[in-house]
Design goal:
Elements (H helix, E strand, L loop, with lengths): L9 E9 L4 E10 L2 E7 L8 E4 L4 E4 L1 E6 L1 E2 L2 E2 L5 H13 L2 E6 L6 H16 L8 E2 L2 E3 L22 H8 L4 E5 L7 H10 L3 E4 L6 H9 L4 E2 L9 H8 L7 H7 L4 E4 L8 H11 L4 E3 L12 E5 L6 E5 L3 E3 L6 E4 L3 H11 L4 H8 L1 H6 L17 E4 L5 E6 L2 E3 L5 H6 L13
Parallel strand pairs: 1-4, 1-5, 6-9, 9-10, 11-12, 12-13, 13-14, 14-15, 15-16
Antiparallel strand pairs: 1-2, 2-3, 5-21, 7-8, 17-18, 18-19, 19-20, 21-22, 22-23
Bound molecules: zinc ion (2 copies).
One zinc ion (ZN) binds next to loops.
Length: about 425
């Protein structure tokens, strides 16, 4: 639809293909017309195809990020097509080929602008050099007042049917979050389900009973496990004794529930990552970046959310945090880093780690028929990774994206909403 000439025949060779359940050494991955046509052992390579030499590394599916706020200085909530394109390009450099731009808390007008900008970029089809937008993750503003985290408190509110019906009517929302304990949360979940969304509970201090009601209304996922969610301890503060089961126990106890981890090594310790992997398995656990605009930017202070009035956060180049040495405030690295850390810090196999960054999020978001694994018929969303899992080359629908970070250019950039001056309260 958005191509004038069909994508050429493309063959990845001289690498180990990573499938959801195994690796295939010395494999070829053949693609034609932007789709994968064959994955198997190498044999004589045809002359009329464009060859991609994996140079002994890995050939994997492109990553799918279902929770991501921005990168390279741009936040999707800036609400401009420029910001959307910048963030999509930045994440493609880190191996993300399918992206779900994620809202923060904000005013109804800011949310509308974000949805409109994402829809416009998606309509144009081919984000030059960027990840493909599969839909928006409507995340803020329906958070619990006591679990707003680094988002703007002023932009938080309870679900308002008149507002969210208008947002859902845009048709671009594919994932929808609301805290389960908020008034009329169930009506929001049912509406999200009616629109075919992955329905999720996040930034919430919900009890087991509230989670059970949410589950009946269609909720099946919890955002960033252990971050901004209820625990036995937080519920004890809310309700006293007897102590109660929390979101954590609810997710672990229900086979139909999935969740996600921020595996940057800063948010969760290796034993928590290992625990999540062992308890949930690679089919119920997604890797997400939850990256903010400070990704690929120098350490400094940045707006989280809209450039106009988002909360200030600080990046030290490894992670985001609330100024003054406070709580963590989302990540500043790409999915490639999450994949490397998950592999290094847990006992998950390489196919399992790659699955958690591709097929599992694709399944949960309802797009696994189209992308998420090296399977004939799916889009040619393909990565070449080094043996150390560094991103070497990135293909979206068979079109190559610039994989290498122009790091010197990136580190020199310093937009208005970033400053290194000491933070003023
Ligand atoms: Zn969050
Ligand atoms: Zn987030």
């Amino acid at each position: 639809m958005n191509r004038t000439s069909p994508a050429p025949r493309l063959i990845f060779h001289n690498g180990t293909a990573v499938l959801p359940d195994r690796v295939v050494p010395d494999a070829v991955v053949c693609c034609e017309g932007g789709r994968i046509t064959r994955v198997g052992r190498a044999r004589t390579l045809p002359r009329d195809a464009k060859l991609v030499d994996a140079k002994g590394g890995y050939v994997t599916p492109g990553f799918v990020d279902i929770h991501v706020h921005g990168g390279d200085g741009a936040d999707f909530m800036d609400g401009t097509t420029d910001a959307v394109r910048t963030a999509c390009r930045a994440h493609a450099r880190h191996g993300t080929t399918t992206i779900f731009p994620t809202t923060t808390t904000g005013s109804p007008a800011q949310l509308s602008a974000m949805l409109k900008a994402c829809a416009e970029v998606r309509r144009d089809g081919n984000v030059a050099e960027g990840a493909r937008i599969a839909g928006v993750h409507f995340y803020g503003p329906y958070f619990a007042p006591d679990k707003v985290g680094c988002h703007s408190q002023a932009g938080r509110r309870d679900p308002d049917a008149r507002e969210y019906r208008r947002h859902f009517a845009t048709g671009i929302i594919r994932i929808a979050t609301c805290a389960a304990e908020l008034p009329a949360a169930e009506a929001f979940y049912r509406e999200a389900k009616r629109h075919g969304c992955l329905v999720t509970c996040g930034h919430s201090n919900a009890t087991w009973a509230e989670m059970a009601r949410a589950f009946r209304a269609g909720m099946r996922h919890v955002d960033h496990f252990w971050c901004a969610m209820s625990s036995v301890a937080s519920l004890r503060q809310r309700y006293g004794t007897p102590m109660q089961a929390s979101m954590e126990q609810f997710v672990l106890a229900h086979e139909a529930m999935s969740t996600e981890v921020i595996a940057d090594g800063c948010h969760l310790s290796p034993e928590l990552l290992e625990f999540a992997y062992r308890q949930l398995g690679p089919r119920r656990l997604c890797l997400v970046t939850d990256a903010n605009r400070a990704m690929d930017m120098p350490p400094g202070r940045y707006r989280f959310g809209c450039a106009a009035d988002g909360e200030w956060i600080e990046s030290d180049g490894r992670v985001g945090f609330v100024p003054g040495g406070g709580a963590l405030a989302s990540s500043v690295v790409g999915l490639d880093t999450m994949v490397q850390k998950m592999k290094a810090m847990t006992s998950a196999s390489l196919p399992e780690v790659i699955r958690m960054a591709s097929l599992t999020p694709a399944e949960r978001a309802g797009i696994a028929h189209d992308t998420g694994s090296l399977t004939p018929g799916k889009r040619a969303d393909v990565l070449v990774l080094s043996r150390q899992l560094r991103v070497r080359r990135v293909f979206v629908g068979g079109d190559e994206r610039a994989a290498r970070l122009a790091s010197s250019a990136v580190s020199r950039r310093r937009p208005d909403f970033c400053c290194n001056a000491p933070w003023q309260a």
